[in-house]
Amino acid sequence: MINSEKRKFNFLGLKFSNYTIDEVVERLEHFVKTTKPHMVSTITAELVARANESKDLKEIYNNVDLLTIDSFIIYYAARLFGKPAAKPVHATRLALRFLPVMNNKVYSLYVLGAKDDVVRKAVENIKAQYPRVNILGFHHGYFDINNDKQIVRDIKEKRPDVLFVGMSSPLKENFISKNLKEMNIPVSIAVGGGVDIIAGKCRLAPLWVSKLGVEWFYRFAQEPKRMWKRYTITNIKFMGLLVKEIFKGKK
What would the pLDDT profile of 67-89 be if each residue is shown by its tens digit? Predict the structure, then answer.
């Protein structure tokens, strides 16, 4: 059994889980077997910056069951500072790696997030490619998180093994964290734009683009009007955090 506490490291104020993507999938299978609720998040440079501005978001990330590095930007930075970081576990790639396992194990799934037509298409695509994944329900992600009792009740009553939450941050983190115990889902994964990618609305960046550390730009190029401000500001803030970390080490 993996000792999860020994497989963590601290970087930029966050406690990262140091697992490869295959090891994360193994952990997800273990979580399903326990039947207890678990929250899994992957985190980009943008979200590191946001967490360092929000005490609540940082607390959520530091209390999830698995928090993995999502981008090569953080991976390269962590290694530069001597952290024992495994290669990134990208949210969408994790979902796509876990779906064949879910198919083989006949796990059940609930998909939450994206626009109504997009989540429906994502569910349709999952059913076509992974027919043994038992999709118990789905719902779009455009709802008032302070008035989510009906959605939470639906998820709770259907009792899926796995919940994919494809909403923007910090909405997806707040929703899962707030309702984790009540929903009592063994695996709740914050997949972000993964629902859009599974639906075919957006494209997953090629691995070589990710390794160059410019996956954010690939995403930006697909939706420039919606993404330019988010990535420009948060990338600058992330670089500022690295500068602070450098000076901290010199003290």
Answer: 999 988 999 999 999 999 999 99
Q: Which helix H or strand E contains 8, and what residues bound it?
A: strand 8-11
pTM score, whole prediction: 0.89
Residue pair 233/46 in contact by the 8 Å Cβ criterion: no
Nearest to 28, CA basis, from 180, 187, 157, 141: 187
- Paired tokens of 14: 């966050």
Helices (H), the chain: 21-34, 45-51, 55-61, 72-80, 91-105, 116-129, 149-158, 171-183, 194-199, 207-211, 215-222, 224-250
Strand 8-11 with 66-69, pairing:
unpaired
Two tokens at 170? 């910090």
Compute the distance between CA of residue 196 and CA of residue 62 in angstroms, rounded to an integer: 27
Report the relative pairing of strands 8-11 and 14-17 from DSSP bridges: antiparallel
Burial code of 6-26, b = ≥16 C-beta within 10 A, e = fewer?
A: ebbbebbebebbbbebebbbe
Q: How confident is the model at residue 104 (pLDDT cuts 50, 70, 90)?
A: very high
- The mean pLDDT value of the chain amounts to 89
Contacts of 228 (CB under 8 A, 6+ apart): 220
Residues 156, 186 contacting (CB under 8 angstroms):
no
Query: Across the strands, what pairs with 163?
Result: 110, 188
How far is 44 from 110, CA to CA, in rounded Å?
Answer: 24
Distance CA 199, CA 104 (A): 21
Q: Tell me which residue of 161, 103, 163 sits closest to 139, measured CA to CA.
A: 163
14 in helix, strand or coil?
strand
